[in-house]
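Record type: monomer structure entry
Structure origin: computed from sequence
Chain ID: A
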Amino acid sequence: MKSELAELDQKHAMPDEEAPDAVPVPHALVPHLGETAILLDIDGTLLDLMPTPREVWVPPGLSETLNRLTERTSGALAMVSGRSLNDIDLIFAPDVFRAVAGHGAEMRLSVDNEADDVHAPPMEKELKRRLAAIAKLSPGILLEDKGYSLALHYRLAPHAEKAIYEAVSLIRADLPNAPIEVLPGKFVCEIKHSGFTKATGVRELMKHEPFKGRRPIFIGDDVTDETVFAIMPDMNGLSFSVGRRAIGVNGHFDAPNDVRAFLARLLDDTRLE
């Protein structure tokens, strides 16, 4: 199974010739942790991809690393994910982290006050019903309802990719005024409200303490992370891709275990005190 998934991931990776010759992440680029905001995608970046979203798990030692980095950055560590806040909390329980969730649809600015959570409006019910019916095209298509968006995971049914996108296109053509956007990812097609992205969420997050005035470091792996890669120069930030050598990043990691090792090394570097 692992070899089959690796082959499928390779199919969806950006070819090296489409990106510059990125180099492994230069540790010397990282500024003082007291001046840094650490922003992390989850699936395929911090955690290894699994056949289904529910199968991801937090490796031993990662929770300690994340909590120590949160302390060292005075709380300026956040998850930036397509997952919902509820999903993020279930994965990392009992730990709770600040987050931009649902591709910018949700945001947690404080781990102590739920009133700080920001939510996008829910998707219209009839539209969601029509999109959800696409999951019946093939066994192995998994439906995920986030309220404000709907995701069709087809890692277990890669042959259904074309049929899924064709079905979504037909619905969009039938409802041209529907305020929706299609996000292609690694074996997932997500349909969400237009008007928000991971980048809009990160811009908003960086306006608030403890992130305000810090230099952001963002690490991501997927097409949906490219909006954040693109805005990092505006914030004097750094961005690193995982698995593929994305255009415009400062460096790359080969796999999530390299990201985890890098984060752990930050804690051991006295230069960053």
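Annotation 1: The first strand starts at residue 36 and ends at 40.
Annotation 2: The chain has two domains: 2-120+196-272, 125-193.
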